[in-house]
Amino acid sequence: MAVLTIRTLPDPVLRQKTKTVNRIDRSVKKLVADMRETLHADPGRVGLSANQVGVSLRVTVIGIPEEEDIILINPEIVRRKGQRLVSEGCLSIPGYIGELYRAETVTAKGLGLDGKEVRIKAEGLLAQALEHETDHLDGKLYIDHMDSMDTLRKIEPEDTGKEI
């Protein structure tokens, strides 16, 4: 396992739609293991998508504190309900946080590392992370959802809170 380098704007890989994983082979399992290690290398990280480490595949890992990591291959949001204003940051846009609207609850589906279908109904931080990471895989960033760039603010490293 290895800690991978996080890609940041303006890296073009962040703006490209990722490719569907057709087979969960040893290379995908190694990618997931490396992504998990990268995600947990620094406290405060919540999620990581493959394109954030330069791999254009539909793979994401979410690590909510005190819960087991969620690994989703070919994830998609199949339902959104409600709306709430959140503050959000991103490993690929370090040093900034912005305000945007995310769903109160989401239902997502994808495949687990074993190739079996996974369906997750989530609220709060997990719902936010599922939307954020799925957006990454579609080449979108949280700043694309902000009503105004006026809410984007620079933050100090100790003030980062949760980076999704």
Using brief descriptors, characterize the structure shown.
164 residues, alpha+beta, Peptide Deformylase, 5-stranded antiparallel β-sheet, 8 strands
What features would you describe in this structure?
With 164 residues, the chain is α+β, with helices and mostly antiparallel strands. It has one domain: Peptide Deformylase. 17% of the residues lie in helices and 29% in strands. The chain is built from 2 helices and 8 strands; from the N terminus they run H-E-E-E-E-E-E-E-H-E. The protein has helices at residues 26-39, 124-137, and strands spanning 47-49, 59-62, 70-81, 84-89, 96-102, 105-111, 117-123, 153-154. The strands form 2 sheets. The protein has a 5-stranded antiparallel beta sheet with strand order 1-2-3-6-7. A 3-stranded antiparallel beta sheet has the order 4-5-8. A hairpin with a 6-residue loop joins strand 4 and strand 5 (96-102). The radius of gyration is 15 Å and the shape is globular. It starts with 25 loop residues before the first helix and ends in a 10-residue tail after the last strand.
How would you summarize what this structure contains?
By secondary structure, the protein is α+β, with helices and mostly antiparallel strands. The protein has a single domain, classed as Peptide deformylase (Peptide Deformylase), CATH 3.90.45.10. The protein is built from two helices and eight strands.
* N-to-C span: 22 Å
Topology order in helix (H) and strand (E) letters: HEEEEEEEHE
**Mean pLDDT over the full residue set:** 94
* Domain module tally: 1
CATH fold annotation: Peptide Deformylase
Write down the Rg.
15 Å
- Per CATH, the class reads Alpha Beta
Structural class: alpha+beta
Architecture per CATH nomenclature, i.e. the level-2 architecture: Alpha-Beta Complex
Strand order of the largest sheet: 1-2-3-6-7
Number of strands: 8
